[in-house]
Amino acid sequence: MNSQELQEFQKALGKQILTYRKKKMCTQEQLAYEVGVTSNYIDRLENGKEDPAVNLYFQLCITLNAPFFGCCHIKQEND
C-alpha cells in the first residue's frame, strides 16, 4: 500500500467511524471515554489523520456495534 492509498484508507475508515458514532448518537467525548482515548484522537481518526491500532479498532467496533471487517470496507474500482 503506497502513501496515497493509506491516506484514502484512513479517510474512508474515519468516515465509517463517524457514521457509526452518529448512529449511536454519542459525542466524540463520549466515544473517547468509552474506548480510553482523547476526543482529539477521535477527531483525528474521523478526519483521516490517524489510523487506529488493531486493538483500538476492535474496541471501536465493539463500542459502536459495528461489524469488524465491514467498518473498514473500501470500495475498489472492480467491486
Give a verbal description of the structure.
There is one protein chain. The protein is an all-alpha fold and 79 residues long. The protein has a single domain (12-72), classed as 434 Repressor (Amino-terminal Domain) (Orthogonal Bundle), CATH 1.10.260. The chain has four helices and no strands. The protein has helices at residues 3-24, 28-35, 39-46, 54-64. Helix 2 (28-35) crosses helix 3 (39-46). The longest helix has 22 residues, at 3-24. The protein starts with a helix and ends in a 15-residue tail after the last helix.
In short:
The chain has helices at residues 3-24, 28-35, 39-46, 54-64.
Largest sheet: none
Cα gyration radius (Å)? 12 Å
Measure the end-to-end span.
18 Å
Domains, number: 1
Topology of this protein?
Elements: H1 3-24, H2 28-35, H3 39-46, H4 54-64
Helix pairs in contact: 2-3
Please tag this protein with its features.
79 residues, 4 helices, mainly alpha, 434 Repressor (Amino-terminal Domain)
